[in-house]
Specification:
The protein is α+β, with helices and mostly antiparallel strands and 833 residues long. It contains 27 helices and 25 strands. The protein starts with 15 loop residues before the first helix and ends in a 5-residue tail after the last strand.
Length: 833
């Protein structure tokens, strides 16, 4: 919808819908903390009683607080409404699948079931299979089927490894509305495994999905027939028409992928490199269906219908209501076609309010309209408040409405009147406003603020508009192939220009990327207060109050860290969860960092890129002073190449094994090409990186010869920080353990021990466990995957460590294990808070 300067005044209740949205949001946030129905019903009843008393007593008094009381009652009712809606959203019926999944999880067992239901949304094509949401209605655990409710995320996957003669499974081609039967193990949604991981399970729960089912056998999926209603059949037909038109007329793969993203919200065809380039240049929003797309689909149609209906003889009132109805019907269809994402819902509601206000000849206020959209979205799905896309969408529009007029005002009027210059001024002001409004959220969630978008959006946004319009015209003109081909050609040229903007911007303006996470709540509050100060810069009283609030929040942010003890020197040791592999990060008290191993890399997952590098970025570690590789096994060094390429490394430390494996030799060549010095160590060496921490190499005595098992040649480190110590054993097995016991004896005793070889019975011999533990030993950490083909960990070594008095922590159960030493004691850090 067109954005106009917000008219004064900017008092809280001058825009009731916006105030109601704030109240509903507060209720949702409070309810998410665990408040149930009863208190919210009591609050709602108290608000209605207060409003009734205010209305009754106001008639008998000359001076009354009726207005204030009614305002407080309305605000309280909005808060109660938000809390009640969230409580209802979270309350699951007794026959919901989530209850059975939770019971199976408590038993640490998979729930083998047969599910019946229908495909709730268009399936998503992935590199490793097809993913879709199943709306289940029946389930069977081996006996008769019973009615159930709940949504399940289903993966029709391709096996990673096929035996000789085995063929990949073939699954039926499914569309939204199809009825299917599935056999498999119903599992709980995944939890965050590492501190820097995104919580995909929480995201799915906010979508109303409470379990997952993975299928790797074609016979486990049965298509039972179409089960779509008339509306879903219409949507499926439109999708098929769009896909066929793009496949028939658009020749380049890049253009087809971009148009599928813009029209159908299907980004699966866009190359990973393109997505990353757009993310680093602040152009990612152009790849998602948002208000920009609704503007072209809705308001362009709304504008074109006026002369058309006028020529058909419609009178003014009939014409207004007819084009309003037609435009809203198309927008609703478009919203359903693109999956009803929150940004699209917000844009559709705002556009609908503006169109209806125009038809009724009533003024519409952009901020109040934004409040109407927020209330509608939160009442429909209250958990959307915690979605990143929803937060960015509403923050961007709020900033556009409030900040754009202020940023345009200093520009001389004669410049703004010129067609080209005026357009650049308006687009530039809008881009700056949106960037400022979303900057706190972007830094909070992603830790990267691409300032190059301030320049690149001036070209990218018009190109995206032309690309979308050309794609829509190509689809509409599909019955006329020459016209469709002409529009497709325009789309191809425009797409090439848009991709060039993104790639060249990434290559030439990468220096403008601001990196660093902002997680402190007081600093986030300071950001918000600063933005409000800018929005109210023309109101001196509000401006000075908000400026004081900004400075106060900054002061609390600084002193809060002091009070929490963040400034006290400490040693952090993080055993990252890298599936069946090892990766341990040491953050030393003086700010230096050491990484011991880097996890596995295979054709499907690079744990160096997936877990190690995100952790370094998330916690502001921009350099590794040492990368220690204990031995050449792939589950320890596979991710090292990504680490070497992703962050500066001071030196590569290893024991110098004479290994001619392609992975190891390629890694050494990469280190040489990047100018990373290699440091071969042996027992007795010390890594001098921090005067408060001593890193001693205990094993091996020298470069292991080729005939010695790789595991036996593992580098064993002992990290000493005051009275606390950490023993990192790599994959050392019984032979290496015997040598350690013979050489060091009880001097091996440590506060924390990284259990060797992922908890295998070939390690953790009785003599070694006895030597490595004493009365001060607190933890024994096992880096192991929950499901691995080796059946690890073995029970015997775990029992030995537990009997020695250590608390055994498995990354398969705990996720990453974060331990912190102050030089005297070692305690766990609860990184999930």
């Amino acid at each position: 919808m067109p954005l106009a300067p917000s008219p004064p005044p900017l008092r809280p209740f001058a825009r009731p819908a916006l105030a109601a949205a704030v109240g509903v949001g507060v209720g949702v946030v409070v309810a998410a903390r665990g408040v149930s129905f009863g208190p919210w019903l009591a609050l709602l009843g108290a608000c209605f009683l207060a409003a009734a008393l205010a209305a009754w007593t106001a008639r008998r008094r000359l001076v009354t607080l009726r207005g204030l009381t009614l305002a407080l009652a309305a605000g309280g009712a909005a808060v109660a409404a938000g809390g009640l809606r969230y409580a209802a959203w979270e309350a699951l019926p007794p026959d919901h699948l989530a209850h059975a999944v939770a019971a199976a999880e408590a038993r640490d067992a998979d729930l083998e079931v047969t599910l019946w239901g229908h495909v709730a949304a268009p399936p998503e094509r992935l590199d490793y299979g097809t993913r879709f949401t199943l709306a289940a209605d029946s389930a069977s655990g081996g006996e008769g089927a019973v009615p159930v409710r709940g949504r399940v995320q289903v993966l029709l996957g391709q096996p990673r490894y096929l035996r000789e003669g085995e063929q990949a499974p073939v699954y039926p081609a499914l569309v939204a509305g199809d009825r299917v039967r599935l056999d498999g193990a119903l599992r709980p949604l995944p939890h965050r495994r590492n501190p820097a991981d995104s919580d995909f399970g929480a995201y799915l729960r906010r979508q109303g999905i409470h379990a997952e089912l993975r299928v790797y056998r074609g016979e486990a999926v049965a298509f039972l027939g179409p089960d779509a209603g008339p509306l879903q059949q219409l949507i499926n037909g439109v999708r098929r028409h769009v896909e066929r038109a793009l496949a028939r007329h658009v020749r380049t793969e890049d253009a087809r992928a971009m148009l599928a993203a813009l029209i159908l919200a299907d980004r699966s065809g866009i190359e990973r490199g393109t997505r990353q380039a757009f993310a680093r240049t602040g152009l990612t929003h152009l790849l998602s269906v948002s208000g920009l797309h609704v503007f072209f689909v809705g308001l362009v149609l709304y504008g074109l219908l006026k002369p058309l209906l006028g020529r058909l003889g419609f009178r003014w009132r009939a014409m207004q209501w007819t084009r309003a109805a037609l435009t809203l019907a198309v927008l609703l269809l478009y919203m359903l076609l693109t999956g009803s994402q929150v940004p699209v819902q917000r844009a559709v509601v705002m556009t609908a309010v503006w169109i209806l206000a125009t038809a009724l000849q009533r003024p519409s206020d952009a901020l109040n309209t934004l409040g109407v959209a927020a209330v509608a979205v939160l009442m429909l799905r209250p958990a959307a408040l915690f979605d990143v896309g929803a937060q960015l969408s509403f923050a961007a529009v709020g900033a556009l409405v409030t900040l754009t007029p202020l940023l345009e005002r200093p520009i001389p009027e004669r410049w703004r009147r010129r067609p080209v210059v005026g357009r650049v001024v308006r687009d530039g002001a809008a881009t700056v406003a949106a960037t400022l409004g979303t900057a706190p959220l972007v830094l909070y969630h992603f830790g990267q603020l691409p300032l190059s978008g301030l320049v690149l959006n001036l070209a990218a946004i018009p190109l995206t508009g032309v690309l979308l319009l050309a794609g829509l015209l190509c689809v509409l003109a599909a019955p006329l192939p020459p016209a469709a081909d002409a529009f497709a050609a325009v789309a191809e040229w425009t797409c090439a220009g848009l991709l060039a903007v993104g790639r060249e911007g990434d290559a030439r303006l990468g220096w403008s990327l601001v990196e660093g996470y902002v997680r402190d709540p007081w600093l986030m509050a300071a950001f918000a207060a600063a933005l409000l100060t800018l929005a109210l810069v023309q109101r001196p009283r509000a401006r000075w109050r908000l400026s004081a609030a900004t400075l106060g929040c900054c002061a609390l942010s600084m002193w809060g860290g002091v009070l929490r003890g963040d400034a006290r020197p400490h040693l952090d040791v993080v055993f990252l969860d890298v599936n069946q592999g090892d990766a341990t990060l040491l953050a030393l008290p003086n700010g230096r960092a050491v990484l011991v191993d880097a996890g596995l890399r295979d054709p499907y997952t690079d744990w160096g890129e997936r877990a190690v590098l995100p952790h370094l970025r998330r916690f502001g570690i921009d350099r590794l002073d040492a990368l220690v590789l204990t031995h050449p096994d792939a589950d320890h060094v596979g991710g090292a190449l990504s680490v070497l390429e992703g962050v500066p490394v001071g030196r590569l430390v290893h024991a110098g094994p004479e290994d001619d494996g392609a992975l190891w030799q390629g890694l050494l060549r990469a280190a040489d090409s990047l100018g990373v010095p290699r440091h071969v160590v042996a027992a007795g060496d010390t890594l001098a990186l921090d005067p408060a921490v001593r890193l001693r190499v205990l094993h091996p005595a020298g470069p292991p010869p080729p005939w010695v098992d790789r595991n036996e040649g593992s580098v064993v480190l002992r990290v000493e920080h005051g009275a606390a110590s950490f023993l990192l054993t790599g994959d050392a097995e019984a032979g290496a353990e015997s040598a350690l016991v013979a050489r060091y004896g009880d001097a091996l005793a440590s506060t924390v021990v990284k259990v060797g070889h992922h908890g295998s019975r070939t390690s953790s011999a009785e003599a070694f466990v006895a030597a490595a533990t004493d009365s001060t030993t607190a933890f024994a950490v096992v880096s192991v995957a929950k499901r691995n083909r080796y059946g690890l960990p073995d029970e015997e070594p775990l029992a030995r460590w537990a009997a020695a008095g250590a608390e055994v922590l498995l990354t398969s159960e705990e996720g990453a294990v974060w331990l912190r030493s102050d030089g005297e004691h070692v305690k766990r850090v609860d990184w999930r808070r």
